[in-house]
Task: structure prediction
Amino acid sequence: MPASRRAWPLLLLLLLAGCSAGGNSSSIAAGRIAYEANCAKCHGDAATGEWGLPDTPVHGPKGHTWHHADGQLMEIILGTLNIPDRTMPSFESILTEVEVMGILEYIKTGWYQQQVEQQREVSANWEDLYPEK
Ligand code: HEC
Result:
């Protein structure tokens, strides 16, 4: 097979990954699977925190996650943001940014509409809020 034909599946994958960054149903479904596999054992149910470990933050409407910009959540999850006394494992070598965005899109399905909108605004202003980044 010529090299150009072999590259097609990869190109298609990249295209699909690009589309899913907006939070369509397939990225949410993938995010759910990745959440169940990597996060649920500590954080419990994404919306309620049920079955989670004690002293582990809840990602649903009653939690604090929705106060953070996407960019900051990405860094917290990948472990590139230095949090003192962090006990959560870093996912930098385990998950891609696209996979983390899928997880975030899945988590957001549990938030109230108002929280989704507020968090979207915070995310858009992320660079302004944290100019040192
Ligand atoms: C081993 C248990 C564990 C696993 C696995 C884990 N976390 Fe955490 N996570 C924690 C703890 C504990 C904290 C509180 C801060 C700390 O101690 O590091 C935290 C904090 C967070 C925060 C910041 C607090 C907030 O909600 O605003 C986010 C976001 C987060 N985790 C997302 C995730 C995601 C997404 C995954 C899966 C990819 C994951 N965590 C996997 C234990 C875990």
Observations:
- Residues 38-39, 41-43, 56-57, 59, 63-65, 68, 73, 76-77, 83, 86-89, 91, 103 surround heme C (CB under 6 Å).
